[in-house]
Design a protein that fits this description.
Blueprint: E1 4-5, H1 8-11, E2 25-27, E3 30-33, H2 37-49, E4 54-57, E5 73-74, H3 82-85, H4 91-102, H5 104-115, E6 122-130, H6 133-149, E7 156-159, E8 176-179, H7 181-188, E9 196-204, H8 207-221, E10 226-229, E11 236-239, E12 243-246, E13 251-254, E14 256-259, E15 268-269, H9 276-280, E16 282-292, E17 300-304, E18 317-323, E19 330-340, H10 355-366, E20 376-385, E21 392-395, E22 402-406, H11 413-432
Parallel strand pairs: 1-20, 2-13, 3-4, 3-14, 4-10, 6-17, 7-8, 11-15, 14-22
Antiparallel strand pairs: 5-9, 6-9, 7-9, 11-12, 12-13, 16-19, 16-20, 17-18, 18-19, 21-22
Bound molecules: flavin-adenine dinucleotide.
Length: about 425
């Protein structure tokens, strides 16, 4: 099927430049590298909560990275299980991180209200469908650990034919209910059969458009303290007397740099061979497909673990449905398996070949509502993963003046905003000493 290689989120965004390229040697207090949702929300909280000056340097255009190419699901979850994370982190730290990112729902509401973007925020529920006993057991273990350490916990519905096969911890009995196959199909909006499902809050939005609108708000409200340079890739950052971020034609000297470059290769950190980011970042590319529709359904978000077997070995799909701002009708986007990448990401290529047809095949088999088959959009985007599955937020332990709000680990929209708030608070404190 012919497919237009573009993200629908980018279709909803401004196409005109917002900042001139960096061509001089400039001075500021904080230089932020990367203007996706992580970089713009870090700038937003820094400017709002302090008197510091901020320069934001972007390789291409604001919001055109992963923030304008994702699934649009603002969800407070992480890809790695609680049990898995406990291999490297104490349970209390994991629970604190999960409680922190849960605040992302409130923060994105506040930001959208403040910058006048309420039309682009859809509050709904994300339903996750499970199709094997192993997945149910893992979810029950997740619930048990979350309850034990005080992290947010979501109820689980299990098919009435499956529930006798499942051993349920008596402490979780209140959180597990019995349901039917048809109810599961209804909540998951699918033709496929699942044997369990759980709901969680979702804030659906175009994070590229939020990034652009934040940048516009900052340019309008902080003309003396905020500078934005687009088309200005930072090639290196040095940390001698001051922090200096260099592009091909200019530089910005500052007291601190915040790296918000997600799954793109980070700039070279001069004089330090192994700063945390170079040691820990693994780069991936994820692919998506979208169709528009003549229908006008309620917004919804769904994740499907759809094949029998080990969920860590099998692909999964995530579907988002909400109103397309260009025509007010449903836009349905689906993302599928991702793969590692070492070279420069080519938005025109397929990773691997045939991935769009595979994702679209899943959508046409399982989605029960009518889509405009002839209008298909396909796109990919970068993801940065850390070795331990925890986002890099805060100061580099070795390099004075180097800070991070980066590494999406698959689910990074709300965590980027929460990370921006945290880094801004820590930088304000550190620079006032
Ligand atoms: C296909 C796909 C689907 C996804 N779906 C979801 C989802 O449904 N929910 C969710 O929570 N997360 C999802 N994510 C992850 C989410 O998109 C990211 O976590 C989030 O957008 C990251 O924001 P960011 O600002 O860190 O990264 P980006 O938006 O990628 O921004 C990084 C910016 O840094 C710039 N940059 C890079 N190098 C340099 C340099 N040297 N100098 C200057 N600028 C530089 C880039 O141009 C880019 O604009 C998805 C990601 C992808 C790719």
């Amino acid at each position: 099927m012919p497919c237009e290689i573009i993200s629908p989120w980018i279709k909803e965004m401004e196409d005109r430049p917002m900042g001139e390229p960096l061509v001089d040697d400039e001075r500021t207090d904080i230089v932020i590298v990367g203007a996706g949702i992580a970089g713009t929300s870090t700038a937003y909280y820094l400017l709002q909560e302090s008197d510091l000056r901020v320069s934001l340097l972007e390789r291409t255009k604001v919001g055109y990275g992963a923030s304008g190419r994702n699934g649009g699901q603002g969800i407070a979850s992480v890809e790695r299980s609680f049990k898995d994370l406990m291999g490297t982190h104490p349970g209390a730290e994991i629970a604190s991180m999960l409680n922190d990112i849960d605040q992302g729902h409130r923060m994105v509401d506040e930001i959208c209200r403040h910058i006048g973007l309420e039309d682009g925020l859809f509050k709904t529920t994300i339903w996750t469908g499970l199709s094997s006993l192993l997945e149910i057991q893992r979810q029950l273990e997740e619930m048990r650990l979350r309850a034990q350490y005080g992290a947010p916990i979501h109820p689980l519905m299990i098919d009435k034919e499956t529930i006798p096969l499942v051993e349920i911890d008596p402490g979780l009995a209140d959180m597990v209910s019995t349901t039917t196959t048809s109810k599961l199909k209804e909540v998951l909006c699918t033709r496929d059969r699942y044997i369990a499902a759980y709901p969680a809050p979702a804030s659906l939005a175009n994070s590229g458009r939020i990034s652009q609108t934040i940048a516009r708000h900052l340019l309008d409200n902080y003309p003396d303290r905020f500078v934005l340079h687009e088309e200005s890739p930072v090639t290196s950052i040095s940390f001698t007397d001051a922090v200096k971020a260099r592009s091909q034609e200019g530089s910005v000297t500052a007291d601190a740099a915040v790296i918000c470059t997600n799954g793109y290769p980070p700039p070279e950190i001069e004089s330090y061979e192994v700063p945390l980011i170079s040691r820990s970042l693994r780069r991936y590319v994820a692919s998506m497909v979208a169709h528009t529709s003549e229908e006008n359904n309620a917004p919804g978000a769904f994740t499907y673990f759809h094949e029998e077997g080990d969920p860590e070995q099998e692909p999964y799909f995530y579907l988002t449905r909400r109103s397309f701002l260009l025509n007010g009708k449903d836009l349905v986007t689906v993302g599928g398996p991702q793969q590692p990448i070492s070279e420069e990401l080519d938005h025109g290529a397929e990773y691997p070949s045939g991935i769009y047809a595979r994702i679209d095949g899943f959508l046409s088999r399982s989605y029960p509502r009518k889509l405009r088959e002839e209008e298909m959009m396909c796109w990919n985007g970068p993801m940065g993963y850390t070795q331990d599955g925890m986002r890099l937020v805060g100061q580099d332990p070795q390099v004075p003046g180097l800070w991070y709000n980066t590494a999406c680990n698959g689910i990074g929209f709300l965590p980027s905003i929460v990370g921006g708030w945290r880094v801004a608070a820590e930088l304000k404190e550190a620079l006032s000493r």
